[in-house]
Design a protein that fits this description.
Blueprint lengths: L15 H18 L1 H6 L3 H20 L6 H37 L2 H31 L3 H6 L14 H17 L11 H20 L7 H31 L7 H32 L2 H6 L3
Helix pairs in contact: 1-3, 3-4, 3-8, 4-5, 5-10, 7-8, 8-9, 9-10
Length: about 300
């Protein structure tokens, strides 16, 4: 995952309007930086990096939502949401195809022909979704936002706010949303709860990245979140791919059917391994004081 660009000159006493402009400017420019590479479609990580950048931009909009009137930002926030959705449709298939290539190498010989059929189906699906992404990026223009940002009208009540005020309004709720979901890690089969925990971890990570000058040991907190999030990401990938292949079973034909059945079983087995690793990662983080560090931010 591409590292978040640093936002220069932020400090707790910076006025909220100036902080909002700096935050949105950096997050937007990082998103736009990936556009040409994504359209070239030479490296699947470009799609991943732009998707993450779009999520960081959406987190930035949430972080400064008290600064601007909703009507003034609705269009730009909607664009970010649409980009995340369209990029995600391509990224999910990239993850599945990459995993399928690895599965083909370890699969029994009798399943490999069927896996090749599955691979061709996935390639066609990916081509269609990338076409939709290309169409979205073709009409997306950064200029309107960059022209609006320096002069965008702020709310009257935001005039007296500082970056520290924004931080206090977002960090504690994000920490609470994450910590209240960590109990799901004791439930091996709670796929939805594990997904919700990972999403809460992402949101907290993006908030800490934005308000780092207001967070004690921000780098340590981010390192802990990164470890837990990555471990949960493997679990979620196994869940997503297992469901994807299971859903295709009723409409498949031999030799795809047998290959898909093998993939579903394989993902269940690997999901169990990934879950145990995620639980171990969390327990180690807690022993290092990670949980206590988060509690201290509330």
């Amino acid at each position: 995952m591409a590292k978040a660009w640093s936002i220069p000159d932020l400090h707790p006493e910076l006025d909220a309007a100036g902080a909002a402009r700096a935050i949105l400017d950096v997050r937007f420019r990082q998103l736009a930086e990936h556009r040409d590479a994504v359209l070239c479609d030479e490296d699947i990580e470009d799609v991943h990096d732009m998707r993450v950048a779009s999520r960081r931009l959406r987190a930035a909009w949430q972080a400064v939502e008290g600064v601007y009137p909703n009507a003034a930002t609705r269009l730009f926030r909607g664009e970010a949401q649409q980009l995340t959705r369209t990029l995600g449709a391509v990224r999910d298939l990239d993850v599945i195809r990459e995993d399928l290539a690895n599965a083909r190498r370890r699969a029994p010989q009798e399943q490999r022909k069927g896996l090749s059929h599955v691979g061709r189906t996935l390639a066609a699906m990916r081509a269609y979704r990338f076409l939709k992404l290309s169409e979205t990026l073709a009409v997306w223009r950064p200029e309107p936002f960059l022209e609006w940002l320096p002069t965008g009208t702020v709310r009257q009540k935001a005039v007296e706010l500082r970056l520290g005020d924004l931080a206090r309004g977002h960090i504690a709720p994000a920490v609470n949303a994450f910590l209240t979901r960590t109990g799901a890690l004791t439930l091996p089969d709670a796929a939805t709860a594990h997904h919700d925990l990972r999403i809460a971890g992402k949101k907290l990570r993006y908030v800490v990245e934005i308000f780092a000058p207001c967070v004690p040991d921000a780098e340590g907190v981010l390192d802990g979140l990164r470890d837990v999030q990555e471990a949960l990401g493997v679990v979620q990938d196994r869940d997503m791919m297992g469901l994807f292949f299971a859903d295709r079973l009723p409409v498949s034909h031999e030799p795809e059917t047998a290959a898909l059945a093998w993939l579903v079983t394989d993902h269940r087995r690997r999901r169990e391994i990934a879950y145990r690793r995620a639980l171990t990662t969390w327990n180690r983080a807690v022993k290092r004081g990670f949980g206590a560090s988060l509690q201290g931010l509330m």
